[in-house]
Amino acid sequence: MDKKILTIQDLSCVGQCSLTVALPILSAYGLEACVLPTAVLSNHTMFKTWSYLDLTPEVDNIYSNWKQNGFKFNAFLLGYLGKANLMDAAERAFDEFSAEGSLIVIDPVFADNGKLYGGFDAEYVKAMAHLIRRADIILPNLTEACFLTGIEYRTEYDKGYVEEVLAALSELTGAVAVVTGVELGGKIGEAINCGGKISYVMGEKLPVSKHGTGDIFASVFTAEYLAGKPLEEAADRASVFVQDCLRATPAEHFYGVVFEKILAARSKK
Ligand code: PXL
Question: Which of 3, 25, 82, 237 could be bridged to 74 by S-S, CB 3.0 to 4.6 A?
Answer without folding.
Answer: 3
